[in-house]
């Protein structure tokens, strides 16, 4: 480790170890830059960042930059913002925009591509890890369509903060290295109401093993029967698809490549950028070689599906909604990618839609697993030229649901502290399932799954805050042996019940949340139309299923409207008493089997975050940053880097070593910050039933008006709309 650390210390922006493998391995457009156009037969088009006026660093992530061997000391360089705005090119980089397609809101949209992002290059760090470096918001590319290739401060800060927040929550994600704003202005119509304003052009640096995505393989799609659109490289799949596929497996799935002896079986298959090789199917080796290649492709597709299923399970367990799960926003290596109108749940609501432009609710919270499975099926379609479509889709079906359920239940058990004695390991689960794999669970795991489902149902019915509910459960003491878990003393122990009732919404909020998204008068009109002219209804983009769902919401909201606040509070109390009694009984049985309560608390506090990037928290930071004050960005970033900490807010902020000018820290501070987020290393601390109170200490220099970052959202947060 000392050698690696010394290597990183020796690096500067001028001496990064760049190796732009993707541009050597994949076909590149012979036309550099140029107008918006269809790009045929290429995966990349070379471009140049468009300079901005007076670039200024807003915030940087030392941990993310360390992946490139960039030490934190480089952040304070006078020309740092010049390099990370694109005004100066980092030595060794070779900017290019990636060509891809996508299914958007269920429909194939043809060529999309990097309209506002660009590949800068790849860095191989001192640990031998390969990381792709990318700009977002650096100007026009051949894929910008009618847009200007720019991003603004508000969207850039949201992506920067959430990328790093997800990493510190332990969820696979692209990383954000820097956020640099400027005095260059772009026109934006925030509410799409004709009232355009000027906003500051802003660039973020993104880092990932690769930014290749499901849509990268859809450039070969023939004309779609419904939309009439086609991929720009349709008809070239025999020559180019094997090249793309082999590059992805060899580089990002080396274990699969090695297991199938990829160097031998794939040699000469596909026409590379240098013109060498032959189209699919392989001429030499006959059917035996073709079968060997297809076996490798199948293993790869299954592993992509497995990673995707595990990823969406992690999203569900932390209450996070992506918002735009198109195939072009699905990473080929199973990480969270493309942060747009995302949102964390506040009030528990399976129907939560974080994207204000998702009128149909296609990408709501509860539907994310099904959508991700659907997207994996589209990937199977995209490679059907080399792997029979039916075989690929069967592989997706066999892997996705089983992996999702296993991962989801495993995470939920940790969130509820159902570990240790009486909780089976993954290997024991496999054995208990009788060899049926992850699709089956042991009896104990199935019981825990039911307990988690009961909890979520209670949270939804009472309108409880998702994050704070899970966080406070570690304070619920295990009932002593011989104690009735349903007794008032057991249920009310630790003050958890009282705290939970403070996290439930009022009756009016629940009524408003349950209301149909279509105004009732319009809904009644559509119902009549569905009976008289269903074809016209379809043309209006309204399905019978959507109509039935909206009518059910209307009836439910009308029933809820009859409930008073006092009646709701009494009902909430009864629901929570019942669930806590059930939970207490489970904990009591586990304790009798030898489970240690201290370990339970530690696991829960290291799995259930205290701090998340709620929309209102991001909005407050954005509003100050737009006025040139980056202090709130620095504070929020400090908390998101320590999501499980029980320390007072002002202590976390002070320890992070952030400044009001963007959050550059020392290498020592970066190392210290990165050491405290592992779930296994978080120790429990005595605390009240709810998340720790946020105070202010004069010695820290922190304002006494700090928001309560771990409390319920303010009332105005309900009005926020992100599109």
UniProtKB/TrEMBL annotation:
GO molecular function terms noted in the UniProt entry: ATP binding; metal ion binding; nucleotidyltransferase activity
InterPro entries per record: SelO (IPR003846)
Cofactor(s) recorded in Swiss-Prot or TrEMBL: Mg(2+)
UniProt entry tagged with the keyword Kinase: no
UniProt entry keywords in alphabetical sequence: ATP-binding, Magnesium, Metal-binding, Nucleotide-binding, Nucleotidyltransferase, Transferase
Superkingdom to which the source organism belongs: Eukaryota
UniProt similarity note: Belongs to the SELO family.
Name under which the protein is recorded: Selenoprotein O
């Amino acid at each position: 480790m000392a050698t690696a650390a010394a290597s990183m210390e020796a690096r500067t922006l001028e001496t990064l170890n760049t190796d732009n493998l993707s541009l050597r391995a994949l076909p590149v457009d012979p036309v550099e830059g140029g107008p918006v156009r269809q790009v045929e037969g290429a995966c990349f088009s070379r471009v140049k960042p468009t300079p901005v006026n007076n670039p200024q660093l807003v915030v940087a992530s030392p941990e993310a930059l360390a992946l490139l061997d960039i030490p934190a000391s480089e952040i304070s360089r006078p020309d740092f913002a010049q390099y990370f705005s694109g005004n100066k090119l980092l030595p060794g980089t070779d900017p290019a925009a990636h060509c891809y397609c996508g299914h958007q809101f269920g429909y194939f949209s043809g060529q999309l591509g990097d309209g506002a992002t660009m590949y800068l290059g790849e860095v191989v760090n001192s640990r031998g890890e390969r990381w792709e470096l990318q700009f977002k918001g650096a100007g026009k590319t051949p894929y910008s369509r009618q847009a200007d290739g720019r991003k603004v401060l508000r969207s850039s800060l949201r992506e920067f903060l959430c990328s790093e927040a997800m990493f510190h929550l332990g969820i696979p994600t692209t990383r954000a290295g820097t956020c640099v704003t400027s005095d260059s202005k772009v026109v934006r119509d925030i509410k799409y109401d004709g009232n355009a304003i000027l906003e500051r052009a802003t660039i973020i640096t993104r880092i990932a093993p690769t930014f290749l995505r499901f849509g990268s393989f859809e450039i070969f799609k023939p004309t779609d029967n419904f939309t009439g659109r086609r991929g720009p490289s349709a008809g070239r799949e025999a020559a180019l698809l094997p090249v793309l596929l082999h590059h992805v497996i060899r580089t990002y799935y080396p274990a699969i490549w090695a297991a199938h002896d990829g160097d031998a079986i794939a040699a000469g298959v596909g026409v590379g950028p240098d013109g060498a090789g032959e189209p699919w199917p392989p001429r030499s080796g006959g059917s035996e070689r073709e079968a060997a290649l297809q076996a490798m492709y199948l293993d790869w597709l299954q592993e992509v599906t497995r990673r995707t299923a595990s990823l969406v399970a992690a999203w569900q367990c932390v209450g996070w909604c992506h918002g735009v799960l198109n195939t072009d926003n699905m990473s080929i290596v199973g990480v969270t990618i493309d942060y747009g109108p995302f949102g964390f749940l506040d009030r528990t609501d399976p129907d939560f839609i974080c994207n204000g432009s998702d009128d149909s609710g296609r990408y709501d919270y509860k539907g994310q697993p099904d959508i991700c499975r659907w997207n994996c099926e589209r990937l199977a379609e995209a490679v059907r030229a080399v792997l029979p479509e039916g075989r690929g889709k069967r592989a997706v079906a066999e892997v996705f649901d089983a992996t999702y359920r296993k991962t989801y239940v495993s995470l939920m058990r940790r969130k509820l502290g159902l570990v240790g004695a009486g909780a089976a390991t993954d290997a024991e689960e496999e054995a208990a399932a009788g060899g049926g794999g992850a699709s089956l669970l042991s009896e104990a795991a199935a019981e825990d799954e039911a307990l988690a489902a009961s909890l979520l149902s209670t949270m939804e019915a009472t309108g409880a805050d998702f994050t704070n509910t899970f966080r406070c459960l570690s304070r619920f003491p295990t009932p002593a042996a011989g104690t009735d878990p349903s007794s008032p003393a057991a249920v009310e122990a630790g003050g958890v019940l009282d705290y939970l009732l403070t996290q439930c919404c009022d009756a009016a909020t629940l009524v408003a949340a349950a209301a149909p998204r279509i105004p009732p008068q319009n809904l009644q009109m559509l119902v009549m139309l569905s009976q008289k002219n269903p074809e016209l209804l379809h043309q209006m983009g309204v399905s019978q299923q959507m109509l039935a769902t909206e009518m059910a919401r209307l009836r439910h909201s009308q029933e809820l409207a009859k409930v008073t606040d006092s009646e709701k509070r009494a009902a909430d109390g009864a629901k929570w008493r019942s669930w806590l009694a059930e939970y207490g009984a489970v904990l009591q049985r586990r304790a009798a089997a030898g489970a240690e309560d201290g370990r339970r608390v530690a696991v829960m506090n290291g799995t259930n975050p205290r701090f998340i990037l709620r929309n209102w928290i991001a909005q407050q930071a954005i509003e100050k940053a737009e006025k040139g004050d980056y202090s709130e960005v620095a504070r929020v970033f400090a908390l998101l880097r320590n999501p499980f900490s029980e320390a007072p807010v002002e202590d976390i902020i002070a320890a992070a070593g952030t400044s009001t000018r963007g959050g550059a820290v020392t290498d020592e501070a970066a190392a210290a910050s990165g050491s405290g987020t592992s779930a296994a290393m978080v120790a429990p601390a005595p605390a009240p039933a709810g998340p720790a109170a946020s105070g202010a200490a004069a010695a820290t220099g922190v304002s006494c008006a700090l928001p309560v970052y771990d409390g319920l959202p303010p009332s105005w947060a309900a009005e926020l709309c992100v599109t």
